[in-house]
Design brief:
single chain, Trna Endonuclease, Chain: A, domain 1, 3 domains, five-stranded mixed sheet, two-stranded antiparallel ribbon
């Protein structure tokens, strides 16, 4: 019998074992291990099971053997853990864009013809300036809607009217969850770039993170939630920065062998990312 699973937004779809197996392999699990976990999950599946239950089962199984692969598998939830202020998401996006070859600054005040605008991230490459609106949600079910795209379009028009060179600028709305269909439809029509966990095809936020090998500290399985919050409060968002931030780690209460284990996982996560 084919079971239907319930997604975070309340919609349902048929359970697809191959989709689970693929996501595990993408995280770094061997094909054999990914197959074993998938088969175990097929035995537990039932009609109405949530994607969160499937994730918890697969994550726990993966973590038993490979912390770094489990960290990559938990990437979407790791970014959800940035909240509630949204600032870590803006800082993380800036790091991602820098890894892609842009110069990037956060929390910039940009003058428009009518008013000044607070822009989350401004990135520049090859004389092209992109003004980024970062829409962070700490719940996967929440989506960025048409109102956000309309607001960003109005802001871009005001900035362009002040600068007088709209051909050298564009707008990007980046979210860690999804856009509504109307938001995507209008964004495409208006020429505003949209970036979400699953959009656009082959160039999603997930794809870009994997290609740039930029992983957040919230993905590390060896850190507790309180330790992650402490590090985020010190504006540390990347796991690659931890070896240079040993004092911050100590201030969060991590010492000795635990610190060594965290450094090891961070290093393995980066190495794993380069191999995939």
């Amino acid at each position: 019998m084919s079971a239907r699973i319930t997604k975070a937004d309340g919609t349902t779809e048929l359970f697809q074992p191959e989709k689970l197996r693929s996501s595990l392999e993408r995280a770094g699990a061997t094909p054999g291990r990914a197959g074993e976990i998938t088969k175990d999950m097929e035995k537990e599946i039932y009609d109405g099971i949530t994607t969160n239950e499937i994730y918890r089962h697969a994550f726990a199984s993966l973590k038993e053997e490979h912390h770094a692969a489990a960290a990559r598998y938990s990437l979407k939830r790791a970014i959800l853990d940035f909240g509630p202020s949204g600032f870590p998401f803006e800082a993380y996006l800036a790091e991602l864009f820098r890894a892609e070859g842009y110069s990037a600054k956060i929390d910039q005040i940009i003058p428009g013809r009518c008013v000044d605008h607070e822009v989350d991230v401004v990135m520049i490459r090859e004389n092209k300036t992109t003004y980024v609106e970062a829409k962070f949600h700490n719940t996967a079910a929440l989506k960025s809607d048409l109102k956000t795209v309309l607001y960003v379009q109005a802001r871009l028009e005001d900035i362009a009217a002040h600068k007088g060179n709209p051909e050298h600028m564009n707008g990007l709305i980046a979210t860690n969850t999804k856009f509504t269909s109307k938001a995507v439809q209008y964004g495409v029509c208006a020429g505003i770039e949209l970036l979400s966990w699953e959009y656009p095809l082959n160039h999603t936020l997930h794809d870009r993170i994997d290609r740039a090998k930029v992983y957040p500290i919230t993905a590390l399985t060896t850190l507790s939630r309180d330790e992650k919050i402490s590090l985020l409060n010190e504006k540390i968002v990347l796991c690659t920065g931890l070896p240079l931030q040993s004092e911050a780690l100590q201030r969060s209460g991590v010492h000795g062998k635990r610190a060594d284990a965290i450094f090891k996982e961070a290093a393995e996560l980066c190495v794993l990312g380069k191999d995939i």
